[in-house]
Each structure stands twice: as C-alpha cells, then as structure tokens.
Amino acid sequence: MSVRKLLMIIYRCCIVAFIALVVVATLTGLPLAWVWLPAALAVAIALGMSRKARAEQAGRPPAVEVDAPVAGRWSALNSPADKVPSHGTHGYGQTYAIDIVAEPEGLPETKDASRPGSRPASRPAFRWLWPVVRSSRDFPAFGAPLLAVADATVVRATDGQRDHLSRNSLPALVYLMLVEAAVREMAGATRITGNHIVLDLGDGTYAMYAHLQRGSLAVREGDRVRAGQQLARCGNSGNSTEPHVHFQLMDGPDLDTARGIPFRWRGIGVPRNREPFTAGEPALPA
C-alpha cells in the first residue's frame, strides 16, 4: 500500500471519528479537546497532501490529445482552461478534470420521456427556491451516450448506484454541500464519482468518466474498446448537482492515489467555462 493511499484511509477515519466524538460529547460532556483532535489531524493531512500535489504539478506536463467523450452540443463547467485545479482540489486525480452539460438548443425535442432516446429541448435553470429538486429526466444530458476517447482497455466499470434528484436550487445545493458531500467523502471515491468507468489508454494514462446512469453500462471490466464506441450513458449518480459528464485523465486507475494529466479534445481543445462546443454529430442512446 502506498503512503498516499494510507493517508487517504487515515483521513477518512479521522472524519468519521470527529463526527462520532461530536455525538459522544453531546451526550456525555466529553472534553472538546478530544473532539477536535481527529478534525485537526484530518485538516493537517489534507493540507499536506494538497501542498505535495501542488509541488508535483509545478512543471505542468504536456496535454494528451484524445477524442471527445460525447457527441452533439455541450458546454463546459469547472474547466481547467479557466482554473487549475479545476474543481478546487488535486484530490482523486481531478487537477485537470472538466464537467460538461448538454445544451441541445435547436435540436428537436423528443416527447416520450419514458424512452431511452428521449431528451428535453433545453436545460432547466438554477432556481433560488422552487422547485427544490427536479427529475434527472428533465435534463438533456441524462441518457446521452458516453464514448471511448481512444482505443483502450476497461479497467473499472460500475453502474449500481441510483440516479438521484437534481441539486440545482439553493436549498438543495446547501444540503449537498453541508450534508451529502460530507457523507460521500467519508464513504470514499466510489461514492463521490458514483457510477463510473476507468479506461487504460496506455503509456501510463487513464481516462475516468463519472456520474453514469444506473444500469447503462455497455462494456465490462477487461473489455477492449475502440475510439468512439459507446461505453455507457450520462446519469446523475454520486456527488452531482445535475446530470452531467465529469471527465478526467490521470496517471493511475486508483482515484485515491492518481495524479491529474492535462487533456485536449481533438478538434475542440479545452472549452472554457460556459463555452458551447459541438463534438461530432448529435447522438442519442442506442
């Protein structure tokens, strides 16, 4: 076991211990010094790992060019073209990760929302209060095909977690940040990414797709896939505010120890935040 992996395990144990001690202190009057000890250790581990990750990324490696993981019209969120680390952390190999959401304006709306190929005509806007949550099927990204970015081998593929309701209102977002995200952090990377696929592209480069739709896998671990082959469908599992694609390149298959690698999508580059782009031809799930 690597030192980085061991530190991640200790970090999660400290968070669990902190919450448990808060409960014990509330019930028994345990001294606060004991309560804050695991929290302080968790913060120290997080800061130390972040400092080491920044040092490792000081000499930015060259970007690896791959195909886009989707087809059709999309736009970027949390893009490494605007900020590095793009998601505010180097953890879980996310240094150069990107989120993208479907923006199918101008494409025909499919009326039957029960069919896999259905898609709304536009993406619902963020609401301050109401509706608090929405169904995943209200978002055009839900069910969109996810494509292999290169010839690769599938080294991890899971799709058993549920697709939850959206978190795109202020009350739902507060709940996500204060409660749900903390619980998922304690549970580990799998609960944060939700259903996900990791591809081995060769030469020490791995691609990870997160938040897949439950039950949508079209491949299994060990399969050899070709560039452009459908792998799964976009969903809303894991630590996600709405159906979207989280994509990243990294130097290993273990999210606890992987370091991020910059990418460029062939013919597109790296879209900036809110920048629309079109990849290939608009496609719907098979």
Overall shape: globular
Mean pLDDT: 87
Q: What's the level 1 CATH class of the largest domain?
A: Mainly Beta
Largest β-sheet summary: 9 strands, antiparallel
Q: What is the architecture of the largest domain at the second tier of CATH?
A: Distorted Sandwich
Tell me the distance between the termini. 41 Å
What's this, in brief?
Helices cover 26% and strands 20% of the residues. It is of the alpha+beta class.
Structure write-up:
The protein is α+β, with helices and mostly antiparallel strands. The protein folds into 2 domains: 3-56; 64-279, Distorted Sandwich (Glucose Permease (Domain IIA)), CATH 2.70.70.10. The protein is 26% helix and 20% strand. The protein contains 4 helices and 13 strands. It has helices spanning 3-28, 32-56, 170-187, 189-193; strands spanning 64-66, 72-77, 98-102, 145-147, 152-158, 196-202, 205-210, 224-225, 230-233, 245-250, 260-261, 263-265, 276-279. The strands form 3 sheets. Strands 2, 3, 5, 6, 7, 8, 10, 11 and 13 form a 9-stranded antiparallel β-sheet that branches. Helix 1 (3-28) packs antiparallel against helix 2. The longest helix has 26 residues, at 3-28. The chain is globular. The model is unreliable at 106-116 and 282-286 (pLDDT under 50).
